[in-house]
Amino acid sequence: MESRLPRFARNDERFASARTVRTNVMNHGNNQRHIKVLLAKPGLDGHDQGAKIVARAMMDAGFEVIYTGLRQTPEAVARMSLEEDVDVIALSSMAGSHLPFCRKLKPLLEADGLTDKLWLIGGNLPALDHQALRELGFRGIFPTGSKLDAIVDFIREQVK
Amino acid sequence: MNDRARQGTKPETKQATKPEIKPVVNESGIEVKPLYTPEDVERSGGYKLVGLPGEYPFTRGIHRLMYRKQPWTMRQYAGFGNPHETNQRFKYLIANGQTGLNVAFDLPTQIGLDSDDPQAEGEIGRVGMSVDTLRDFELAFDGIDLDQITVSLTINGAAAILIAMYLAMAEKRGYDVKKLRGTAQNDILKEFIGRGTWIFPVEPSIRLVGDTIEYCAEHAPKYSPVSVCGYHIRESGATPAQEMAYAFCIAKAYADEVLKRGLSIDEFAGRLSYNFNIFGNIFEQVCKFRAGRSLWAKIMKEEYGAEAPGSMWLRMIAAGGGGGLTFEQPELNIVRGAYYALISALSGTQTMALCSYDEAYTIPTEYSARISLRTMQILIEEMGLTETVDPLAGSYYVETMTNQMRDKMVEIMAETDAQGGIVKLVSEGIVQAKVSAQAYQMQRDIESGAFPKVGVNRYRNDQDEEHPVEFHAYQEEDARRQIENLERVRAERDAQDVARCLAQVGVDARAGANVMPAIVAAVKAYASVGEITRELVQVYGRYREPIRF
């Protein structure tokens, strides 16, 4: 949990705040597949307590987590997902702009050939938006109240 | 601790053979005993800091008569869409008995983007009111008497600009800015820890806070330019003792910045205020505030040499406790809100803002905001909470815990200083990592049931599918109108004047001068939030988030 490898700051000038942190690739000594997750904070929302909790849960589960920090554009999320060759693209959204963001992100991920990756979203996601998110390609939807183990288990199940 | 706890029991009784009672330790790490006696108070430091309300060290309250003279200010957080809609909501709340305003801004405004910025798309007016220029403030506060209703601006990264705008708007409407009251949140260090609406790097950000305090001390001496927020640090995972200790460290960092400019502590400390969280154990919270009041007074008096009592006052807004509310069974949050208001009243807060029951879902409706308001009004009108000052004083438990909470805060502040100080720890992401690790552990404890939460890990209603919450729909039309208004202002204003004013902001920032006079001139010329921010970014640069786990 102590590793700290900030790198990867090729965002556009104004949103160059992003620094990712790559966690230790923990070898748990079992046959579980190595899973690599990009965990992003989309848009302008600054509420990152939930994202950081989920990042820690994923790290504890042995996943390699690349946490982006705040204020990621759709372009930055797509680029990092491609360049880091992740298995899972996960977003944490608390301030209500998940639909407009995901509508912009979807074609970018498609253009980069990332449709075979597992797309997840968690946070403050009203039930009436879940169908729209599913149609946009998000297979995992984890609204507030979801359990950490449910997220981890879902990823293990889906990433084969 | 255990030995001490056992001293109160009689060793010769049969108690030793009975199963031991489960030890209880509060969130701040202090053991809670089943019974407190006068010896506990003595052992924890006695009654010497209890004193009287309105007198140093102010443990019992900053005013002599507290609510007997005037109940707390009721200041529900409100704002959404464009300034016109927000103005309507303000008037609704005032008509329902609210006595202060607490303005929510949308995210583009909070991080210094104009509504027509591509990054603002989909975010305009979503979580608060959208503000581009002085025109928006004129609309938002139209018809509201700023002498009768004090206004608090929940703004941080862009606070210098929005404070300037508020003062300019009031002046334009004929108010004497020298007498104008009000508050801005303007606590950037806590934004780096939680909440995240930073813009500039740490060092110039602190300088900007200093600029606003220095400017207000001279030009708007009744205005509170900073409300230091333990609140969001607590939301990010801090314990109640850490919440207050870190807030004091942060307030000291701002005070140090202003002192460097040659002001005396009594010229500005009286306008520093605080914003604290309330969720958790009732007694731990009440004692946190009682302890904090005397500790802050002592810091101001002994470390900073303050002489004016007002400089030693821990003035605060409390009653919000988002971290304690639940997404599950949201109607239970009405009950929690009532307890939070009760705790705040028992704690001697100056102002209350309750989280409405639907805030885990959406921005509050008129209906939910009114319930919050009525909750506070019931306490004032029906429950006798305004009649007697600091009614819990003298309780062996409360006085012991107050002493212990104070010791705990002192310990955390000393530890923070020993590690290089709050500015360094925040700059390097160390505080963030610490509270985030605690938040993770808390989440695990809630999920395992080790930390009880009704409706979540106790008494769940899994068959309830529909939650009684009304969502606030995002209005694309409002966003479009906001952009049109900005374009209209840009077309109507004196472009040369704006350019000149903006250039001056840059010149002053480069020279390291106080940028407030130039920002005030720029907002009066209808320069926008985004334009002024860009000038400052060219000089200061942008913050880069240190991510650490």
Your description of this structure?
The complex is a heterodimer of chains A (160) and B (549). Residues 1-19 of chain A have low confidence and may be disordered. Chain A is an alpha/beta fold and 160 residues long. The radius of gyration of chain A is 14 Å and the shape is globular. Chain A has helices at 49-60, 74-84, 98-111, 130-135, 148-158, and strands at residues 21-22, 36-40, 64-67, 88-93, 118-123, 140-143. Chain A has five helices and six strands, in the order E-E-H-E-H-E-H-E-H-E-H. Chain B has a domain at 66-448: Alpha-Beta Barrel (TIM Barrel). Chain B has helices at residues 2-6, 38-43, 83-95, 107-110, 134-140, 159-172, 188-193, 202-219, 231-235, 240-259, 282-303, 309-312, 332-347, 366-382, 396-418, 422-427, 430-448, 476-492, 495-511, 516-524, 529-540; strands at residues 24-25, 31-32, 73-74, 77-78, 100-103, 150-153, 182-184, 223-224, 226-229, 272-275, 316-318, 351-352. In chain B, helix 10 (240-259) crosses helix 15 (396-418). The model of chain B is unreliable at 1-14 (pLDDT under 50). At the A-B interface, helix 1 and helix 3 of A face helix 4 and helix 17 of B.
CATH architectural category of the domain at 66-448 in chain B: Alpha-Beta Barrel
Structural class of chain B: alpha/beta
N- to C-terminal distance of chain A: 25 Å
Percentage of residues in strands of chain B: 5-15%
Figure out the total of helices of chain A: 5
Quantity of strands of chain A, as a count: 6
> Domains counted in the coordinates of chain A: how many?
1
Strand tally of chain B is 12
Distinct helical segment count of chain B: 21
CATH topology of the domain at 66-448 in chain B: TIM Barrel
User: DSSP strand (E) fraction of chain A?
Assistant: 15-25%
Within CATH, the superfamily of the domain at 66-448 in chain B carries the name: Methylmalonyl-CoA mutase
Strand order of the largest sheet of chain A: 1-3-2-4-5-6
Name the CATH class of chain A. Alpha Beta
Fourth-level CATH superfamily of chain A: Cobalamin-binding domain
